[in-house]
Amino acid sequence: MRKYTGWFILVSLVYFAVWMSLAIPYRLFPSDDDYFRSFIDTPGIANTVLMVIRSHHPVLLISLKLTKMIWFLFSRDLSSVLLLHSVISNSIILFLAGLIIFTLTKNIFMAVTAGLLYGTAPWPAIYYFFYSYAPFSAMLLLLSLYFILKVYLNPSASARRVIWAGIVSGLAFWSSPSAVVMITVNLLILFYLWRPRLKENNNSLWIYLKSLFLVILPFSFISFAAMKDHILENCRQYAGADVEVLKTPFFSFFRVLGEYNGWLLTSFFFLLFFYLIAVILKRDSAWPRSQEKAVWALTAGVFLQLLLIDILPSTKLARTNFALYPLFIIVAVSLFWFLFLKLSGRLKYCLAALGIILLIPLLYAN
Description:
single chain, 16 helices, 0% strand
């Protein structure tokens, strides 16, 4: 694992350098950018603290201020702070996706495939020209999930990973209004994967929950009112249908993804279908292995999260669904690998050849 970590870091740094060179300087669009740009430009500590208190995503704003401090070592272009923030977030997502795929499959080619699919995808790149909280929130949520999976796959791992999973989830809670959906899904995944262990000792679960709430509670004192107002406004709009996008039909994530890469969406459903057939026809005695059980949990997590997003009174915009996108790629690539393992003889080689051929339209669609 360690010998590949350096390569994952290098690929992420190359991705960072390429997109910073392509997208700089940041072009300010008339959207939420104006709010975030005004926050970066706010002079004085008192005014900054006041804006953080009035916000329902204080962790995001604090991270923007920290990014500004780093950016000002190189440039005084305030707008490009938003670009740097998004590129850093997506570079870390790219790194984490590679790590998680390698953790689940132990195959470097699958990790490279996931990196190609995410690194060339247009959806993350949108936020280099149209800023949103989405990449930062997705990065924190994926990092939390990585810690949860590491503890599950390595029961002897240090309890600090459980603590970090809770801390990062708590930070994600205050980085995006929709993060609570993914945190809920992560918690359910944790319950499912750790269930045998929890019957004997539930210390890990309590450590996670304590870490989560110890991060959520301090910010609650300063931002609870803003969060409450935001939720009530969404509920009011949802009830009155003031905004048409609130009434988008179900499966909003699949609808958004279909606009960006219909080939990836179609390939996912075909993989899932044939994988389930393979499970039914060939169920070996060692099934489910720990890694495959984790993929099952993540697959269920994809459908559960998109269902919760559709049910809850929130806008069904791309940014609301974006946190699900890295997880979707991880699940799709993992399903391919475990389907490959279940096949035998010529079928294995046919699937491998088909996968290589399909990469061409998948990357072209990106």
